[in-house]
Structures are given as C-alpha cells and as structure tokens.
Amino acid sequence: MERYIINGGKPLVGEVTISGAKNAAVAIIPATILCDEPCRIENVPNISDVNLIARILQNLGAKVQRVNKHTLDIDPRPINTCSATDDSVRGMRASYYLLGALIGRWGKAKVALPGGCNFGLRPIDQHLKGFEAMGADCQLVGGAIVEAKCEGKVQGAQIYLDTVSVGTTMNLMLAAVKAQGQTIIENAAKEPHIVDLANFLNSMGANIRGAGTDVIKIRGVDYLHGITYSIIPDQIEAGTYMAAVAATRGKLLVKNVTPKHLDSITAKLEEIGVSVEEFDEAVLIDATNRSLKRCNIKTMPHPGFPTDCQPQFVAMLTTVNGTSIVTENVWDNRYQYIRELLLMGANISVEGRVAIVDGDSQLHGAPVKATDLRAGAALIIAGLVASGTTEISSIHYIERGYEEIIEKLCALGADIKKQYVPEEDAAVTA
Ligand code: EPU
Description:
Blueprint: E1 2-7, E2 13-17, H1 22-31, E3 39-42, H2 48-60, E4 63-68, E5 71-75, E6 83-84, H3 87-90, H4 97-106, E7 108-112, H5 125-133, E8 136-141, E9 145-150, E10 158-160, H6 166-176, E11 182-186, H7 192-203, E12 207-209, E13 215-219, E14 228-230, H8 235-247, E15 251-255, H9 263-272, E16 275-278, E17 282-286, E18 296-298, H10 310-317, E19 323-327, H11 338-343, E20 347-351, E21 354-358, E22 367-369, H12 373-385, E23 389-393, H13 396-399, H14 405-411, E24 415-420, H15 423-429
Parallel strand pairs: 2-15, 3-14, 6-7, 10-11, 18-19, 22-23
Antiparallel strand pairs: 1-23, 1-24, 3-5, 4-5, 7-9, 8-9, 11-13, 12-13, 15-17, 16-17, 19-21, 20-21
This protein binds uridine-diphosphate-2(N-acetylglucosaminyl) butyric acid.
C-alpha cells in the first residue's frame, strides 16, 4: 500500500513536459498485432496501463523490448494465439482493443472482458454490434469472455454507431484495416487519439480516410509494413496540469503539447480569467494574482470539453468566485470523487448529471481515497490548494495514467511525496 502526502498552499511555477497520450498508446500497442513486420513506437508514456498492455502482448507471443524509457520495439510476428483470457487482460479497460486487433489478424478472437476504472456501466454492445456487422459471430462465454469467430476473412460493412464511442470507433478501425472490402463507420468519435491510431495504421500501409470527422472509411489492405511512430502528447495530462496551475494561481509552461487539442480546455480557463498563451508545441498558463470567476462546463465528445478533465476542473472551480454548474454528459456516474472533496471542505451538490460547485470553499487537508484515475487527479489538485496535509490512498489508479506525477509536481514547487503504508495502518486510513 502506498499513498500520496500533500502539504498544500504552494503555487505551481515552472515548466512541465507532457508525456505521450495514454489513450492513444493503449490502442496503438495492440494495433501492432496487425502488422506484418516489427515496429518501433516512440513517446510511449511510462505508466502502469501501458506496461500492462505491453505485457499482455508479450503473453500472446509478441517480442516486446523497451529500448529506452519511452520507446518500445514490438515484433508481432511470433504471436500464435488469438486467445487472451488471463487475469491481466481483465485488469484494464483498453484490453477490448485486443478484440479488434485479433479479429483483424485472425478472423477470430477470445478475450476476457475488461475491468478498469469504475464509474458506472461500461458496456461494449456497440463494439460487438460492429464486429457482427463485419461477419464475426460474437458470443459471451461464461459471462466474462467474448469469443468472436468469422467464416473466413472479416468483411467490410457500413456501421452506424448508436452512441459516439471512442473505444468502438478505434476497435472497428482495427478490425477493418485488413478486412475484405470497405468499412464505413458513421457517427464516429473524433478524439485526437482516433486520428493518431489512423495515422499509425496509415503509415504502415492501411487505407483509412476521414479519421477526425464523424464518417471514417476504411478499405482493407493485405499487408502492413513496419514503421517507427511517435505517439501524440497526452491532452488530458496537459489539461490536468492546466487545471492545477489555475487552482494554485501559479504560472506554468506546459511543453510537448498540441495546442489545438486543448482548445476546449483553454477556452474554459480563459473564460474564468486565466491567461493562456499558445506556442507551436507549448502553452503558457498564468493565473498569478488573478481573481478567477465561475463558469459552466458541459462534457461532450471531442471537440467538446473532455469528460476526462471534468473532475480536475471541478476541484479547481472550488477555488473561484461564484457558483459553477458542471454537467457530465458522457458517463452516468463520474461524481464519486465529490464525496472525497466534501471531506476536504468543498461545497458541492450533485443532482443526477449536474454538479453545483460553490467557489470560494476553504479546502483543508483530509485522508481521502482515489476512486478512479481522474478522480485521483482531482484530489491531488484539491490537496495542492488545501491548507494542511492531504493523504490520498488507492494511488494505483493515478499511476495507471500519470507518468512521474510526483517528480513533475515537485519540480514545480509542490510539496508532495509518496509514502509506503504498512498493511495494518492502511486498513485504518483507507
Ligand atoms: N457506450 C455504450 N456502448 C458501447 C461503448 C460505449 O453505450 O459499446 C457508451 C458508454 O457507456 C459511455 C459513452 O458511450 O456513456 C462513451 O464511451 P466510450 O466508448 O467513448 O468510452 P471508452 O472508449 O470506453 C475512452 C477512454 C476514457 C474516456 C472515454 C470518453 C480509453 C482507454 N478510455 O473510454 O478514458 O473517458 O473514452 O472520452 O481510451 C480515462 O482516461 O480516464 C478514461 C476513462
């Protein structure tokens, strides 16, 4: 058991370098299953979710080698099974990409149903509907494993998604890349990592058009050649630091970002009175000596405000003047962390999908628990602002998606450290 200990009250000041995008990496690594030659992936974030998906590939038979902290060499040619059913697969949500990649390579797959962060129902009905349209018969085996089988090769199909889904869009792209004929995905999601996956596959010789719009056309190809590819910067990690610097009234140069991907986040910060200056691959956030004011936020699929920054912004909005209204439109139950913020003195009420956040709360330190990855990030932001000491438990959630968060924050002047907790003490404080 480990926890983070934060002594709050210090503004974040300096420069931070953003890592590669988690949600691109967890799709691009399994996408190498489709490649007919070895690949090199650069700007891979060094986080536990990525290490897990790399290990799962290794268990399938791929040769995976870490060349340095952020570069993986993957040779998928030795993979000789389409079955991924051990417990490690269940350990992360994104292992559903194994379904698309294995169906794309073998026309069949057997994959354990994913676990991952816990904020309400996380169905994969749209993924399965798409695979079925492409000729794969999908069965739930024992309630916990999906088995998909095609008669021969996967067939191109026209698929309309009932809901805009990032995972479905990427998974169907994977299944379609080597399919017979053309696949059209309508009502597709448009997140930057969807474009990144398409760019990765196209660089290997795939034929995908329209990624980043709501209609994606994929014409199947027979062969994908090896490449070196660099993953895009993590939009959500950047958004997290941007919220943190606003909350602490600091000044931060956020480096290795694509400013265009941050438009919705930048717009909200400017609306509340933070200065944001854009450079080619960096943004400068200045909240020093500013009196920030309330705003309303509605989460939406890209290019709307990302749900994955909602908790961090709610934590930040507890520090501004006035009452902000936040509406979560993507997930049913992404407010569990608010219970923890209340323990720290926040004044927030939740009615269904709406959180009413009273600014000017005087947050104080408390023992709190991360309930998922972004919830944990929100608690860190609250701890950086709060008076006294905040202790955050269940930090394994945070380390799924934030590379070296302690080191990065300490370099900006935060007083945060990781502490080992003996098991019997953990039972008392968690
Ligand atoms: N949905 C369905 N049926 C499906 C798939 C999705 O009804 O078959 C619904 C979901 O219940 C949800 C909505 O569609 O209400 C959107 O879900 P989506 O499929 O877009 O989410 P996801 O692909 O499972 C990814 C990210 C999440 C992020 C969402 C939304 C990964 C590994 N995860 O999840 O990231 O919140 O997109 O942008 O890419 C995080 O990084 O903290 C995280 C949770």
